[in-house]
Amino acid sequence: VVSARVFEDAGFPAVVTSSAALSVSLGYPDGETIQKEELFAAVRRIAGRLNVPLSADIESGFGATIPELVDTVRRVIEAGAVGVNIEDIANYEKNTLYSLEAQVERLHAVRKASDSLGIQLVINARSDAYRYSAGDEEARFQEVIQRERAYEDAGADCLYPMGLTDKKRIASFVKSVTKPVNVMARKGIPTIAELESIGVRRLSLGPGPIYATTALLRKIAQELREKGSYETMLTGAITFDELNALARPITQ
Amino acid sequence: VVSARVFEDAGFPAVVTSSAALSVSLGYPDGETIQKEELFAAVRRIAGRLNVPLSADIESGFGATIPELVDTVRRVIEAGAVGVNIEDIANYEKNTLYSLEAQVERLHAVRKASDSLGIQLVINARSDAYRYSAGDEEARFQEVIQRERAYEDAGADCLYPMGLTDKKRIASFVKSVTKPVNVMARKGIPTIAELESIGVRRLSLGPGPIYATTALLRKIAQELREKGSYETMLTGAITFDELNALARPITQ
Residue B217 and residue A2: Cβ atoms within 8 Å? Predict the structure, then answer.
């Protein structure tokens, strides 16, 4: 809730959960190990405290079958999400992908399920083909283009080719598809201005914020252990009233 | 879970929840507004992932009656806590205190309840008398001494006079009681070495870590909005594998 509210207060028009940040903060490793009920409860907590729309990262949908996937989508919508990030990883231990055909069928099912609930769900179709498909870098780049083209035909609203950081590659990808493109802010990624200039429409921070705050917690702990002082913790910190103001009664 | 595991990994021998940090991160303002079930679930999540002992901040016990207080204590013990922070605030909107006699009765009840469960519960008896009782600074200092003396007689294992920051005041307080004394790290507090030299045995960070990490989140958001860059987020950040390693299957 705190991080979502901070980004809302900073003027961002929407918030998306990070699966890694949400899962690990609740004690589960990333990769669909979180109990589904805990995921839905967390989405409900966050959605209920935001004024801006919330999208939920549902990894690959928590279930290999279409009914399981549809149940996950229905439950996050009921919890207050109006969008999902959904990826094409079939097995998080082996980093294998659903076939293009299987993922197209899954995206069709998500679109159909949300339509039947009367929700214009924003489907952000992530593909990990650039990271995990077979072949050299060029082959994997072609694979992610082929997949994301199929995903937009299947009803995705936004395309999220995970792992692209090179400006030319990103620009080439944007030109190869028609729907808005999402990239993740990570080391080596162009600035927002550069991304805008090549047509990128959406930027994800992913677990970037929790990587940074956890590093800060480590520094705080280290200073306490080594120096017995609190400078890292106290310098620039917000106040009790500022923290409390980030909590808000559930609005739904 | 993440912050608890970071402090465990840094070598601290025990972890305590902060009511403000835990509540606000779940969307509730501090001051017993969190749903009790959500508090117990959070304690269970954290206790289940730690190897070191966990103590739970239960504010004033979530209930003006002894049975309500005892239920809270029983439930946090069942959730895996082996200690509690319990304070003497009767009303969080008005910042009024339980009478000394009432709080003594409440501490007796906590000790009796934990004994009947076969747990050597570490009762950290916080008093807010230095902040919220009547009179001038000297009168409030005498009041917190009087109260904490009564609380140690009532079975408290540790005494936590909230609001003391001055080294002489803290030293004087330590000499006025027999049980170990806990103070909170905040602006103006002596270093750990100085606190040790005057006999302080336990240091709480309170919501200090979340004040710091929330400030960092704000800086990350601000840089994104103003500069369109990610330096604050990426500099010194931990990795995906390091984050994931902080999650752990429930051990209980």
Answer: yes
Measured between CA atoms, the residue of chain B closest to residue A191 is B229
ipTM here? 0.97
Q: How far is Cα A73 from Cα A75, in angstroms, rounded to an integer?
A: 5
Contact between residue B181 and residue B158 where contact means Cβ atoms under 8 Å apart: yes
pTM of the predicted model, to two decimals?
0.97
Strand-strand pairing, A89-91 and A15-16: unpaired
Distance from CA of B175 to the nearest CA of A (A): 22
User: Backbone phi, then psi, for B146, in 5-degree steps?
Assistant: -60, -45
Q: How far is B192 from chain A (nearest CA, A)?
A: 5
Give the model confidence (pLDDT) of A117-166 as tens digits.
999 999 999 999 999 999 999 999 999 999 999 999 999 999 999 999 99
Q: What does pLDDT average to over chain A?
A: 96
CB A20 within 8 A of CB A92: no
Run of H or E residues at A97: strand A96-97
Which residues in chain B land under pLDDT 50? 252
pLDDT in tens, A61-91: 999 999 999 999 999 999 999 999 999 999 9
**Would you tell me which residues 199-228 of chain B have a C-beta closer than 8 angstroms to some C-beta of chain A?**
205, 207-222, 224-225, 227-228
